[in-house]
Hints:
Oligomer: single chain
Mean pLDDT: 93
Shape: globular
Strand order of the largest sheet: 1-5-4-3-2
CATH architecture of the largest domain: Roll
Number of helices: 4
Order of helices and strands: HEHEEEEHEHEEEE
Largest sheet: 5 strands, mixed
Radius of gyration: 18 Å
Helix content: 10-25%
Amino acid sequence: MKMEPDKFRSIRKQRVYDLLKGIETGDPESVKVVNEDKYIQHNPQTHEGGEGLAQLFARLSKTNPKVEIVRLFEDEDFVFGHTIYDFSSVRIGFEVFRYEGDQVVEHWDNIQPRVDIMVGGSTQVCDRDQTEANRRHVKAFIEEVFMGANANGFGAFVNEESLVDHSPLCQLSEKVKLMDYQKNHRLLAEGNFVLAVNEGFNGEVHTSFYDLYRLDGGKIVEHWDTTEAVPPKEKWNNDNGKF
């Protein structure tokens, strides 16, 4: 699967695209977008400092990894993407980068093993004039249905007749009943797409939930997600936190 051409592809988007592909190619130019002196890494499994990104990418590229960027969005100082990684196993991820000026200074992600397709469906960004309305809609959906435990309100936010759900875990209507969403950390949006970064519990497991929604006509019509357990703090390799 390849991203559809995007005439709104900005320099910031392109540089993040090149950065992610740099894992595959080992191109040292790809990492120059990152200000390594300021870079804050929120993946708890990643060490800060030590090996530089150029050296890391060069080493990783020798293992013949494959990186595919399926979707890429921009929201003010944030560029966020939906990715497929094929290293020793295939994983699906959401990547979030924060810019200061023309360099990336902060990064978050949420990655899980691929189950079924997980990334199919629409990729074209449109309705950019509806960005803020769509962000507000998803915010209300999370607060009222997920965190408000109001499963009966589902239909007010979701077009249940046309919903296409790519989640490998469970359908969105079941997810609101089964998962304990406790905090929304971030809502990133471009046009008809909104990415929600949430923290909560899957059973007794402290979990990071990333949910990507596509909206049409003021309602959610498509959904993708990744679900990743948050390791206990004593196992973190940096002190920046998952969120």
